[in-house]
Structures
1.
Amino acid sequence: MLRYLSRRMIVMGLSLLAASALIFSVTELVPGDPASFMLGTGAQPETLAALRQQMGLDQPLPLRYAAWAGAILQGDFGTSFTYRTPVAGMILERLQVSLPLAVMALALAVAVALPVGLYAAARRGRAGDGLVMAATQLGIALPNFWFAMLLVLVFAVKLRWLPAGGFPGWSDPAAALGSLILPSLALALPQAAILARVLRSALVETQGQDYIRTARAKGLTTGQTLRRHALRNALIPVLTILGMQFSFLLAGAIIIENVFYLPGLGRMIFQAITQRDLIVVQSAVLVLVAAVIAVTFLVDLAYAAVDPRLRRA
Amino acid sequence: MIRLEDLSVAINGRPILRDVSLDLAPGNVTGLVGESGSGKSMTALAIMGLLPQGARASGRAMLDGQNLLEQPEAALCRIRGRRIGMIFQEPMTALNPLMTIGDQVAEVLRLHQGLDRRSALARARERLDRVGLPGSRFPLTLYPHELSGGQRQRVAIALAIALRPDLLVADEPTTALDVTTQARILDLLKGLVRDEGMALLLITHDLAVMAGMADRVAVMQSGRIVESGTTESVFRQRRHPYTQQLFAASRHVPARAPRPATVPLVQVTQAVRAYRTADGGLRALDGVSLTIGRGESVGLVGESGCGKSTLARVILGLDPLQGGGIRLDGREVTAQGHMPRDLRARMQVVFQDPFGSFDPRWRVDRLLAEPFHLTGRPGDWRDRVAAALTEVGLQPADARKFIHEFSGGQRQRLAIARALIIRPALIVLDEAVSALDVRVRAQVLDLLARLRADHGLSYLFISHDLSVVRGISDRIVVMQAGRIVEEGPPEALVGTPRHEHTKALVAAMPRIPEEWT
């Protein structure tokens, strides 16, 4: 177990290092120097040079990378070119929206997908299964912004149960949570549909295994075999998908953030790109990559928790 | 007492079992023997109420005056595991890989007796002790992957007999095991029938296993029982032609040409194949030296894990050596991409599993022509494919078929045709007939003998089954723990084994008593 853990951790560290170097050099290679962008096209060459020097843009690439990475390790992500505020603060503020949103969406997706997947697998080939498969197909096909607009129409405009958009901040937790419910529902729907299908097919495959037959010969009902023996064995592919979905939800919610006027990470990155605020883009992408790597590590831990063959490897 | 009366099963209207009648008496072993597809397993599944979807059963399977075939599913769930236990052929996959062995045995007790986990585990401990897995070496917290095939089969037996059922159904329980492990598991089953007074329904295709185990035996063919009676009377009298064919096939020895003067073809000298494992190292081959003569057929036997397949892999140049060397035709065999193609083309291999060794999306002509990538595809390759098909007893027209259109025996013929097509000097046969029914096996062994005589082939014939190896080999080599412990001509080796391990292997060979034949 320790060996498995330490190997995973080394992989995690190396991935972070490689990713940070890649992110840094790619943004460096993009045409359009941030200094010239800040000063506009009519700037004097001397002013440009002075600003570049002030921003450290005249240093060689490896030095700039080392300085950047060193500062990040101390929590200093630099200052936004556009807003002249510390990037770390900006990202933190946005994460307060995006992280709870992603977690809520994923929790919803799992809460829906688990019973639906189990139900469909138990009725494989029968009407219930066909219905679920059709419904999940629809759930994947529906664009989530359309579903989001539908939710707004029903729950905000007609019923007036929940706000149609905006985020009041965490000073009022109930209002903050309330404003995240509709967006997380909109995000969760296609994810739940994908997850339910993956779980169903993993369960169906597991049900053909010899140990399921053994379990039936012990006197377990089909439902008991499904829950006690098949489910855990079917979890491995589900965990893989879950990890990928979380990573996607963290930054991929940009359309939903726009529909609901949420100050999330996705919108911030989009704005930073259009404004060529490279330092914000760089830092935000790095945070996202770090989150993906951390989630992958957690998924690896979950694999080991599920499968004893990995624990004792 | 469980009694089957005129049990018939049809799947989607197609009859699978017809009028099967059997008495399964307490303290008795009843054997069902026959080839694959004869309905043996279906009979067992019908008793368990675990028939596949679309199956309809008629007739009666009586237990305590109630017909099992008419019981609702909930009632059957209470009977399965409590009154009737079952074990299956494949111990490697029969247990849940994510559950400890203790919990898997305890689950039966908790399910049927409502025991709490602790007392169920205590009882599970007793049952595991009973099947020969003592607590000192086999704690309840072990997972299936930490056990060998034989040990896993013991766990499967423990959970099947946990509640002392009236009937234990054992479907080919030792087919996937070595002879020595097989002998121990069969002993255990016999002891359980004796001590616990349960009835045992033993399903096997192996007549010799049946001879040593069953009190009564029923021979099945195409879903019917064609002959039944006490084991001795069925074995002695063999009234039905099908019984006679099975007997003839299981004792079949292919005609063997006299051993030619041996010019060495393969020379293995002091071969060492070492692996690094979690707890140190493993020497799968620990200084193995072996010569295979041109035109010679060498049988290689030993228990699983003794290094048989590793030896085959290094000879084929699939695994590197850590010491010693291998020569073919005097040229060095090296692993991976370093071996010249013309040297690699001198050897071919046929594996055990005729289902997994072919790409299901390719047609037969493409499958058979694949080895030509070693030699360059000749212009007349289609003719050669046709000739190879004819040679192994198939039709040239089969070239356009896909692999799923063939039976297991036909697939093994195709595997042999594929090996033959570039005219190699050596064919390695790794458990190549182990998965085949006795009659098909006899035909394949004849085919191999004929091809060898026609083409002067050398064989390295690997098997855990000494009785098969004996019939086809000029010389038998016995391996144990990465070393060759004894070698010699088949008659001498089986008749008067010298090494302890060979003696154990020979003693464990199931036999039909001489006086019955």
2.
Amino acid sequence: MTPLSITSRTLAAALGGYGLGALSAMALAVTLPVARDQAVIIGIMLSFLLCSGAAIWAFSARSAWYAWAGILAPCLLLGGLYLWGRPA
Amino acid sequence: MKKSFRQSMAWLHTWAGLLLGWLLVAIFITGTSAYFREEITLWMQPELHDSTLQPDTVDKALAALNAKAPDARSWDISLPGPRHTAAELRWQPAKQPENEGRRRGEQMLMDADSGEIVSPRATRGGNFLYRFHFELYGIDRLWARLLVCLATLFMLIAIISGVITHKKIFKDFFTFRPGKGQRSWLDAHNATAVLALPYHFMITYSGLLLFMTLIMPWGIDAAYQGDRRAFFSEVFSRGEDAARPGAPEAMVAIGPLIEQTETRFGKPVTRIQISNPNRDNAQITLRVNRDPAVTDRQRGGDPTQVFLGNTGELIDTHIPANDPVSPGWRIYNFFTSVHMARFADPLTRWLFFLFGVAGCAMTITGMLLWVSKRTQQLRRDQQPDRALKMVNGLNMASITGLMLAIAAYFLANRLLPVTLEARESREIQVFFLAWLVSLVHGLLRPHRQGWVEQVGAATVLWFAVPIINMLTTESHLFSALAWQHPAIASFDLVCLILAGLGGYTLWRLQRKPVPAKPRRARPPRAANTSTTGQTPAGETQ
């Protein structure tokens, strides 16, 4: 791996991974069909696993571009889910 | 695809591990000690050792509170148990300082036999090590916690990527090739990691959950439109004190109430809380210890009876086991209560302690492996470069350095004068001074002989703890007092075991010096004798 690729992947893992985790926590908190305190805790519990999964993906993807794409695509999806389920 | 998935995971595991490994070693060692933080605090306050629960302890505690704070807003008495010998009396003063964010209240300790208020030597006790494991010391609490969370997240990633790296995870587990330098460290790293893998995952993941409101509050904000307080009051509702103090009125005798509660639950009362004491709206809350349970709610989880203070009428009986807990919270409670092991009886606590030790061993062997691997890759005539020496020196400081600093902390507790000004800070200064000395030493002597010296120093210090204890207190291994509360004697025994382990390590280090160049920077038993051993499945880079 070149230094540039490592830097890019590290950023994807750290920023993208955290963003993915945060968006999953938000989306699940407002869309899961259970009491809202439960939806919140389930979202948080899954978010940490998603952060880790995203970091692993960032370093195993074929290229740094794939690493970013594989993280940003689900981020968009979760962001949309949050906007759709957000309380008025 | 240039690299295989496993190779890139091994790369990630190696470098993520190195980057925060030192911090993780410190978190694991101090965190493992935290399973016994109350016992450590007890040991560090020998003035309290000769105190045992008596039938009239409650009356004496109430008398002491009546003398000290008759018009307090609330009283709170914790009776002695197996983990602490003195009665803890707390109260909320009638007038609250407005600017304090959290209402801590006042506190004093009472000898359970004599009813005298005792003031033991000032020490942070086991709480210093406990707090260090999640907020370090001397730096801003928020940043320290974020740093620890970052290390925790790295470890979670290291665990997951480590599992992926080890396709033959169970085969590796049963592979141990002692005395073969790098291979031995690799096998030990694998064995300790796999052996306690569920524990490692639990402790890391739950560590993040415990700080969820700090590092992942966005779900709460999303569902509660930014009103985090609403979330907390929905989830962790705690009874608020009655706001208005009533008119003065005497309270009934507490003896019959205690008898009633103990008959109802079949257990001794361990905690007595009285709101608005000596008023007509006084309420007496009696708690017994709950049954060990890991998934029910953590807070307010004890079986409780509430009585009116002026008439003694029973107004509420609360059995928390009957509370419904939703599945999501059950999972959360499972992880967080297993992390803190507050529910654990002594045997379970020892088991957790041993798992913690396995965690220390895993992080430590991982760090040693990193250096060992690179030392072996050197050619015969090649000297380790500065970076490798520095890693080796930092390894020393983080492993042997922290161990000897903790021993120095305990020794300072016994040797510093009891009346010393700011004594509790002095103990902590001794801790950091010892650690600093080891860091400087490690960076100056980053080779085998340096390790020998540091392990030797740690061994001497740990052996000295029970000896100095014997010379300075009445509760040592050869006294009945220490065995009256097994926690106190066990503390000395653990010190001796640690000294023994240090001695054994020293013997191994001395026994097999590197034959050709004894001055070369090589970690313990780094001589490469293995040419036939097959490459294990999950060799890291």
